[in-house]
From TrEMBL:
CDD domains, alphabetized: GGDEF (cd01949)
This protein's UniProt keywords: Membrane, Nucleotidyltransferase, Transferase, Transmembrane, Transmembrane helix
Disordered, as annotated region: 371-390
Species per Swiss-Prot/TrEMBL record: Mesorhizobium vachelliae
Protein name: diguanylate cyclase
């Protein structure tokens, strides 16, 4: 027969090592706050295990309340870490019901019905673990195999706590006077150690995946404007064929070198950010904006006709012309030139569409700037009128 005290001590040792590991990881990457939250939750559970082991030796009523409160609080913190990682912000949905369960447990335990207190606590923990598994399965955006394991371990651990509560309920043990000791408790000790160790390892894996995602996002994002960069353009569209309802608009801010020379680079940065803000306003499904470098930008449009794509690019140019940047020399207004490149029924690669848009862009500059040009069916630039600004 398994020695119950040994199981508890093994759980405490395993949890302590896991908590220390989590703290160490958080110290190296402070931005991963959910790792710190997990470490705190596991530390509370270790305190629960130690208190529970002491309670098995000296079943004092006040110690019973401490044991049950620490168990519920520990899994509440674990649940909050899952919400933190997955982007849930309404923590009250977990905190309020759990605190209510803790209050009910404290009341019945104080009245001497510690068996009911254990049942309430086990029910609360089961609900928290079920919530963790459900949240990861429903909202996680990583490898579904990892999420399946997280959900399975949470469910298995929750089931072991549910069995503990159901065993007490089935035996009608409303008053215990000591720590419960039955087959369900022993099974729970084994399952809890295994599942919490597994969840800890998976937390490290999820942290690693999140770090990879953040690193990839940083390498594909322009730090000044927040738009995607040329690397992202090649990543997203480099292997795609541009069909008849796809287009690229290339933009180049007019006289931008003069803006930097006359007003200074900080003002030039403001102008770039203003244009990025304008182009972001036209973002929707199927429209992606990029800063290619310097004062060059690109807008990739899907599910649009050539006419609508040209109209959107023209409206962006007009909207940018209304932007005013305050400077030490007075208000500054800038303009932008644009060129259009289109896909075809047979499909065209990214480089070919970009080359067409680039040629049209230079035609717009030669035609006097402050306009968006698209080549006609014969491949000749169709120099429209200058963009009207307010």
């Amino acid at each position: 027969m398994l020695d119950f005290s040994s199981l508890l001590l093994a759980a405490a040792l395993s949890g302590t090592c896991l908590s220390i590991t989590m703290f160490a990881i958080w110290l190296t990457t402070p931005r991963a706050r959910f790792v710190l939250t997990v470490a705190c939750g596991i530390f509370v559970l270790v305190a629960h295990v130690v208190a529970f082991w002491r309670y098995t030796k000296d079943p004092e009523p006040w110690l019973c309340q401490v044991v049950l409160a620490l168990l519920t609080l520990g899994f509440l913190v674990i649940c909050l870490s899952a919400m933190q990682y997955l982007g849930f912000r309404d923590y009250r949905r977990a905190v309020v019901p759990t605190l209510a369960a803790m209050a009910a447990c404290a009341i019945v335990t104080f009245l001497g019905f510690d068996g009911i207190g254990f049942q309430i606590t086990y029910a609360a923990v089961t609900a928290l673990l079920a919530a963790i598994g459900t949240m990861f399965w429903m909202k996680g955006d990583h490898d579904r195999r990892i999420l399946l394991v997280v959900s399975f371990l949470s469910g298995a651990c929750g089931l072991s706590f549910a069995l503990c509560g159901l065993t007490l309920l089935a035996q009608g043990q409303w008053v215990l006077g000591a720590a419960p000791d039955n087959w369900a408790e022993r099974l729970n000790s084994v399952v809890a150690v295994a599942c919490m160790t597994g969840l800890g390892a998976l937390t490290l894996s999820l942290h690693h995946l999140q770090a990879q995602i953040e690193l990839k996002a940083e390498t594909m994002t322009d730090p000044l404007t927040g738009l995607m960069n040329r690397r992202a353009l090649n990543e997203l569209y480099g292997d795609r064929d541009f069909g008849p309802f796809m287009a690229i608009a290339m933009f180049d801010l007019d006289h931008f070198k003069m803006t930097n020379d006359v007003f200074g680079h900080p003002v030039g940065d403001q102008v770039l950010c203003r244009f990025a803000a304008v182009i972001k306003k036209y973002g929707r499904a199927g429209v992606d904006a990029f800063r290619l470098g310097g004062e060059e930008f690109a807008l990739v449009m899907s599910r649009v006709t050539p006419e609508k794509a040209h109209d959107m690019a023209s409206r962006i140019g007009v909207a940018f012309g209304t932007e005013i940047v305050p400077t030490h020399r007075g208000p500054l207004r800038s303009s932008v030139s644009g060129g259009m490149g289109f896909g075809s029924a047979a499909g065209r690669p990214l480089d070919e569409v970009l080359a067409q848009a680039d040629a049209a862009l230079y035609a717009a500059k030669r035609a006097g700037r402050n306009r968006v040009i698209a080549q006609d069916r014969e491949g000749q630039p169709n120099a429209g009128p200058a963009l009207k600004t307010a």
